[in-house]
Design a protein that fits this description.
The protein is 46% helix and 16% strand. By secondary structure, the protein is α/β, with parallel strands linked by helices. Strands 5-6-7-4-8-9 form a six-stranded mixed beta sheet. It has a six-stranded mixed beta sheet with strand order 14-15-16-12-17-18. A three-stranded antiparallel beta sheet has the order 1-2-3. Helix 6 runs antiparallel to helix 7. The longest helix is centred in the middle third of the chain and has 31 residues. It is globular. The two termini are 26 Å apart.
Length: 657
């Protein structure tokens, strides 16, 4: 049902345990002793993970060294009361690792910046340092970074959003106290008027003076509340929550009743509600469904203040951003325009730089071959002079083109990654189908799916869309056979192999094994030796030094690559993908989209990434859109772009009301 809040997996505890066992390759028929031993091991690993996370949080603020140019204070003074943030000569390191080196940037008030670059290079760190003001931000600029989920307590979701406005809460409390004071004064005045007035002259004068002061203050409070639009506070907060997927009933529920993903939405709603001068967002779409992502895009397009956002979603960056800040080779470079325009400009500059580098290398090689020191010096001096002229002419507009500080042209090396899933063996249809299926979780009367009839074959492309909690992941689990229908049946070819990706499959990796050990244990019949497993991991973008590191120490994106490699080893006929882009950088998402598009088997996809869906479902003749809502699965009559345009039109109408 729409609006029903379920755990992020939308699975029962029994189902979750089954998934955990299947992904680890554990035999279900274990003895009680083996079961207890396995559970103890899992508990110890979980404790280690929790301890590492806690330590990371505690050390965060002290883990970074920030240095600025000596003239930074002069630059700040020159800005006076400007709403811009200007940073010169910034260097940042974390526990000895250099993230940024002598780079400069300016965040212009009222612009919306996308901060992009490979994962693990310092984008989130830069946001945090701005949010913590370790990178100087003028005191008169209020900064807010949406970093942690809202605290789970008895506060209703709607009130948790309104309460983010500290001034409003203070004024409302003061209004209430003043009204109580004035009511009490009026009551005392009535009592005095009925007695001996002469006896109370002094008290009456003091009371009248206090009453006048309280009345004057109350009038000032009312005036300020009117200026703030306090009367519409709840309706404005409700509108934001609704856009992020909260029904009216959910808005009245206490925050402790929501999962972590939904509490992150509440934190995002609080930030949008109070409208800070500088808003910092780190992957804001990760916990959102497709409609909520499109709503956020439209809402932020109307944002009048300053925004810096880290996102791996191309469509989001193209729609929202007016500028791009690119983190590359320890430098920050700013480009005007959205992400698509940035890509065009960056590629042009990359080609020019590499052309100059190749020319220089050719000339230097020829000079060295002549064994003439004079010729070598001439080539090197000519290259240096050209760079100096370029710098003086102002062509080196930012730190991306840092050759003005170098003695010779340099080659721009870019991070690339390529995914591929093996061509499956041919199987005749039907491969996988649900026939007259209905499903309900035990003891859950508030959720169910009814009357499902659908199928997936070789070459099929399906995007499952609908609100979070409507049953998209449940439908995937029914297709996979991890859940059994309450009514009807699931049919599958007896030779069918299904590859599955979801956050659970990342979370339940064997944390104390390294990726090579994990794959060798899980796929003993794959016929690959350790070096073959390492080659496979490399093809999925996992760097060599991580192949033999405990999975516990890998980032979310690195763990995802291990799962993708494991799926490839299965040789699946059908891929069931549940939000596969979470934790992946943009290059990896592009690689995944290309791999899924080229895959000759069937693909069923749940994703909030519009570009991924558009790429996978580009061929209308074999693509379908399944809309899951209100306990039903309906087939959308049209392609994904038409479905997306309908949603955007609805959202625009809602925001314009």
């Amino acid at each position: 049902m729409a609006g029903v809040d379920l755990p992020s997996s939308e699975e029962s505890e029994e189902e979750r345990e089954k998934v955990v066992r299947s992904v680890r390759g554990i035999t279900l028929e274990r003895t009680g002793k083996e079961e207890a031993k396995a559970r103890k091991k899992d508990m110890l690993v979980a404790q280690r993970v929790a301890q590492m996370k806690e330590a990371a949080v505690q050390d965060d603020t002290d883990a970074f060294t920030v240095r600025l140019a000596k003239n930074a204070d002069v630059a700040d003074a020159a800005l006076q009361n400007s709403r811009d943030v200007k940073v010169d000569g910034l260097s940042v390191s974390a526990r000895g690792k250099v993230l940024l080196e002598n780079t400069s940037f300016t965040i212009v008030a009222g612009r919306r910046y996308g901060l992009v670059g490979p994962n693990g290079k310092g984008k989130s760190t830069l946001l945090k340092l701005l949010g913590w003001r370790k990178i100087p931000v003028p005191d008169y600029i209020d900064v807010l970074m949406v970093e942690q989920e809202v605290t789970g307590d008895d506060t209703p979701a709607l009130q948790a959003v309104v309460a983010a406005d500290a001034e409003l809460m203070t004024l409302r409390a003061e209004e209430s106290a003043l009204r109580i004071q004035l009511d009490a004064a009026a009551e005392r005045a009535e009592q005095v008027s009925g007695g001996d007035a002469a006896k109370h002259d002094v008290d009456e004068d003091a009371t009248e003076e206090a009453t006048d002061a309280a009345s004057a203050r109350l009038a000032a409070v009312y005036e300020r509340l009117a200026e703030m639009g306090a009367g519409g506070a709840e309706s404005r907060a409700a509108k934001i929550l609704a856009g992020l997927g909260f029904t009216e009933a959910m808005q009245g529920r206490p925050t402790h009743s929501f999962s972590g993903g939904w509490r992150m939405r509440i934190s995002l709603a609080r930030a949008l509600y109070i409208q800070p001068t500088l808003l910092l967002l780190d992957e804001p779409t990760n916990h959102l469904d497709l409609r909520a992502v499109l709503w956020l895009e439209e809402y932020l397009q109307r944002w009048k203040k300053t925004l810096v956002v880290v996102s791996h979603d191309r469509e989001f960056l193209n729609t929202v951003c007016t500028d791009i800040i690119h983190l590359h080779d320890l430098k920050l470079a700013t480009y005007r325009g959205n992400f698509a325009q940035f890509e065009d400009m960056y590629e042009q500059r990359r080609k020019e730089a590499n052309k100059a580098f190749d020319k220089y290398e050719k000339q230097l090689k020829a000079a060295k071959a002549s064994s003439s020191k004079a010729k070598i010096d001439k080539v090197q001096a000519g290259a240096k002079a050209k760079l100096d002229r370029k710098a003086r002419a102002g062509q080196a507009a930012d730190d991306e083109d840092d050759e003005d500080k170098a003695d010779a042209p340099r080659k721009w090396a870019d991070y690339t990654v390529s995914f591929a899933f093996p061509t499956p063996s041919e199987l005749p249809p039907p491969l996988l189908s649900l026939m007259d299926v209905s499903f309900k979780y035990p003891n859950r009367d508030d959720f169910g799916l009814q009357d499902i009839n659908l199928g997936v074959d070789m070459g099929t492309r399906v995007a499952i869309v609908g609100p979070n909690g409507a049953g998209k992941s449940t439908l995937l689990n029914l297709l996979a056979g991890d859940l059994q229908p309450s009514v009807g049946e699931q049919r599958r070819s007896h030779k069918l192999r299904v590859g599955r990706y979801s956050q659970h499959f990342v979370d339940v990796l064997q944390m104390d094994e390294n990726p090579v050990e994990y794959l060798l244990r899980l796929h003993p019949t794959a016929g690959l030796k350790p070096e073959g497993m390492r080659a496979l991991l490399g093809r999925f973008g996992l760097e060599g030094h991580n192949h033999l590191s405990p999975i516990l120490k890998l980032s979310g994106g690195q763990k995802a690559r291990v799962v993708f490699a494991s799926i490839a080893l299965l040789g699946p006929h059908i891929l069931l993908m549940d939000e596969p882009t979470n934790h992946l950088d943009m290059q990896s998402i592009d690689a995944l989209a290309e791999a899924l598009e080229a895959f000759e088997g069937g693909v069923v996809l749940v994703s909030h990434d519009a570009r991924l869906i558009s790429t996978v479902c580009e061929d209308e003749t074999k693509s379908q859109i399944w809309v899951v809502d209100h306990g039903q699965v309906e087939f959308y009559q049209g392609d994904f772009e038409a479905f997306r345009r309908e949603l955007i039109d609805e959202i625009k109408h809602e925001l314009d009301e």
